[in-house]
Amino acid sequence: MTAPTSDAVATFRHFIAGQWCDSTSGVTFESVNPADTRDVVGRFQQGTAADAAMAIKAAETAFPMWRRTPAPKRGEILYAFGQLMAEHKERLARAMTREMGKVLAEARGDVQEGIDIAFLMAGEGRRMFGDTVPSELPDKWAMSIRQPIGIAGIITPWNFPMAIPCWKMMPALVTGNTVVFKPASDTPHCATLLVELMAEAGFPAGVVNLVTGGGGEVGDAIVGGPDVAVISFTGSSATGKGIAEKAGRRLKRLSLELGGKNGVVVLGDADLDLATDGILWSAFGTTGQRCTACSRVIVDRSITDALLERLEARARTLRLGSGLDETIDVGPLINAAAVDKVAGYVDIGRGEGELVLGGGRADGDGLEHGHFFEPTVFAGVRPMDRIGQEEIFGPVLSVIPVDGYDEAMLALNQTRYGLSSSIYTRDVNVAFRAMRDFETGIVYVNAGTTGAETHLPFGGWKETGNGHREAGRVALDTYTEWKSIYVDFSGRLQRAQIDNQ
Ligand code: UN1
Question: Which of 35, 71, 106, 419 has the most crowded CB, counting CB atoms within 10 A?
Answer without folding.
Answer: 419
